[in-house]
Amino acid sequence: MPDVDEMKEGKKYYTDVPQQTEGFFLKGSNALDWGMKNRLARIFNPKTGRTVMLAVDHGYFQGPTTGLERIDINILPLVPYADTLMLTRGILRSIVPPSVSQSIVLRVSGGTSILKELSNEEIAVDIEDSIRLNVCAMAVQVFIGGEYERQSIINMTKMVDIGTRYGIPTLAVTAVGKDMAKDARYFRLATRICAELGAHYIKTYYVEDGFETVTASCPVPIVMAGGKKLPELDALTMACRAVQEGAAGVDMGRNIFQSESPVAMIQAVKAVVHDNETPAKAFDLYNTLKNE
Ligand code: R5P
Q: For residues 179 and 145, is the Cβ–Cβ distance under 8 A?
């Protein structure tokens, strides 16, 4: 039992110091609840406002992708350099140690394979499992213009509703069909639809012409997807341009884990994203680390 008189003496109200009420650092996220913000602050570094997400969820529709054949051997050494891991619950439970401190973004849409129409997805993870796995966001693929466009949009809005109930953000992943033009006009359309319908942040591809109009017209943070493997300097240049043109970081897979030196590449990407390093200097860093 504390001493009542002594407590009275010790009270300090700082009546001359107004309580600070800080705004949340992420674009468009100030009106979210505490749990949502706390989870987003584990994905995006509050110091830089950006994230390096390592995407290794490709197996959910294409099996053992090149570079992901042995996630225990190829991917676990990269984990310390990532802010966030984006993956499926199968890989999380079977391979990733629960002691990792990186935040987890869980792939929750699925149900198709590369052998069939990819846009025909459903929600493939119950919210209870996302809570059980302590994830910081749930990722849903959205196929704007795809054959099952409506179904994929409704998958996303359902996750936004369910996630909002429990304070878990939804990441909308804009998927591009084989025959669609990957240009700024398309990505403005796709990202804006996802944001208007409640996605908390959005993953989309980089386009050389007009990417800044995509980030400017999207009211919530955008992270850049890496796409097909490029030469390392080109991938670093793309990541650099994306963040300089308004992306709040990257969600890269193949350009990291298919690199000649994935451990060096993720550190070079991190330098571009968090330290505003130039592509040339980040590439020097890549070469130095690769040869160590
Ligand atoms: C694919 O559908 C997954 O969402 C990947 O996470 C995404 O494509 C990012 O990986 P990459 O940088 O290899 O394109």
A: no
